[in-house]
Design a protein that fits this description.
There is one protein chain. The chain is of the alpha+beta class and 423 residues long. It has helices at residues 3-34, 40-67, 70-73, 76-84, 89-132, 137-150, 181-186, 189-204, 207-220, 225-250, 253-269, 282-290, 299-317, 350-354, 385-395, and strands spanning 157-161, 168-170, 176-180, 333-334, 337-339, 359-367, 373-380, 399-401, 404-405, 408-409, 412-420. Helix 5 packs antiparallel against helix 9.
């Protein structure tokens, strides 16, 4: 596999995810709208499934491109250009995207690395805080008792941190709950217990692993708004699910609502935004605990979502097959044939001729219905780059007898070999 093949495969996968992500985002938005009055667990599952699909779909396509011939990666140009524009503009979009692939991949790689380093730095900070920050034996004993009551058998550690504004839970096999020092000193004990019950609900559900996957997907596909919207919905629904579990464990939904209200007050008093631990809106969560209501369907908001979904589907259905060498569904097919008398014989590169380098180049030619070559690529090298490029450039200028399907000329791929010999 060449570097050019790798760049093309990654580049076209990133470009194609523009409509794929839009389609997935629309599907998730429609499902969330239909489930607006369902349990938060169901909406959470739908959002998680959508985010996983956003990762798996492009990953499978990238694997297929890397495993296939070099020209397979380039077929996504037709997917992007053909799905968004029509007619003679297709070629312009295709050319622009193809010339920009290198910059697209480099920019994506730099941004993905920066986001990954940011995630790693956050994890290292949490680990350091868990190792060196303060311990409170009294609150640790309370947390141990609450963990057993909620059904957590493994040890849950408690650390008191000065730099935090709301409780944070991290770790799966050795979970840790980081509690702001301002809450320990400024919040009533029964309300702080309610917040700890919420964090234990996260631990019981292994939410840390899902949050870690979210960060990975956000780092890889950061450029698509659907990723951030779906991920934000996951965090919001996850908080509602943890609230439900904690309220059930406490037996007092209003107690947890009071704790969230007190958390909001303390955060505002320390000049921080009112933001719940690990995502979610505090006021929305309080409302759901105290007075859950039925939400009506907003059809005006649903119309743009349906329109975008139809546009993404149109882009999908109007594209060419991923594999250009796949058999046509028609009955009688003939391959294009080169008319070598229409083009000049390739000139032997001087250095290769002086070194008496010989070889056979196998090229793939995409021949249009009028017999002209749309695209020419090297499918199997002769072993010498100058021989490959000279043969490719020369044969691309030839005219072909176009291939046919059921007697009608049709754009098709064909193979041409050119043998370089010194003699």
């Amino acid at each position: 596999m060449t570097a050019a093949h790798l760049v093309a495969s990654i580049g076209w996968t990133l470009v194609e995810f523009i409509w794929q992500g839009a389609l997935i985002g629309c599907a998730v938005a429609l499902a969330m709208s239909l489930l607006r009055n369902a349990r938060a667990e169901h909406r959470y599952a739908v959002a998680c499934a959508g985010l996983v699909l956003c990762l798996v779909w492009p990953a499978l396509e990238l694997a297929a491109r890397l495993a296939g011939p070099p020209d397979l990666a380039a077929q996504s140009a037709a997917i992007f250009a053909g799905g968004l524009v029509a007619g003679p503009l297709d070629e312009g979009w295709r050319a622009v995207l193809e010339r920009s692939l290198g910059w697209i991949v480099v920019t994506w790689g730099v941004c993905a690395v920066v986001l990954a380093l940011r995630m790693i730095a956050g994890l290292l900070w949490l680990q350091r805080a868990a190792a060196v920050e303060g311990r409170d034996p009294v609150w640790q004993a309370r947390l141990d008792r609450m963990a057993l009551d909620i059904g957590i058998a493994r040890k849950v550690r408690l650390r008191i941190v000065a730099q935090l504004t709301s409780p944070v839970t991290f770790g799966c096999w050795r979970p840790v709950v980081l509690v702001p020092a301002s809450l320990v000193s400024g919040m009533p004990l029964h309300l702080l217990e309610a917040l700890l019950a919420h964090e234990l609900a996260h631990i019981r559900r292994h939410d840390y692993l899902v949050n870690l996957l979210q960060n990975v997907v956000e780092a890889l596909l950061f450029y698509h708004p659907a990723i951030w919207w779906i991920s934000g919905r996951i965090r919001a629904e996850r908080e509602l699910v943890a609230d439900t579990i904690a309220a059930r464990q406490l037996g007092e939904p209003r107690r947890l609502a009071l704790a969230l209200s007190e958390l909001e007050r303390i955060q505002f008093s320390t000049q921080h935004l009112a933001q719940a631990a690990n995502g979610g809106n505090l006021m929305q969560r309080i409302k759901q605990l105290v007075r859950p209501d039925t939400q009506a369907l907003n059809w005006k908001a649903a119309v743009p979502v349906l329109g975008l979904a139809l546009a993404a589907l149109a882009g999908c259905t109007s594209t060419t097959p991923v594999n250009p060498f796949a058999a046509m569904p028609d009955n009688e097919t003939t391959k294009p044939i080169a008319r070598f008398n229409t083009c000049a014989r390739p000139v032997y590169p001087a250095e290769a001729l002086a070194s008496k380098i010989e070889g056979t180049v196998t090229m793939g030619m995409l021949v249009k219905a009028d017999g002209k070559v749309r695209e020419a690529i090297v499918r199997q090298s002769s072993g010498n780059a100058s021989l490959d490029e000279t043969a490719r450039a020369a044969i691309a200028k030839c005219s072909f007898q176009p291939g046919t399907v059921n007697g009608a000329p049709k754009e098709q791929w064909t193979e041409v070999q050119y043998v370089w010999t010194v003699g």
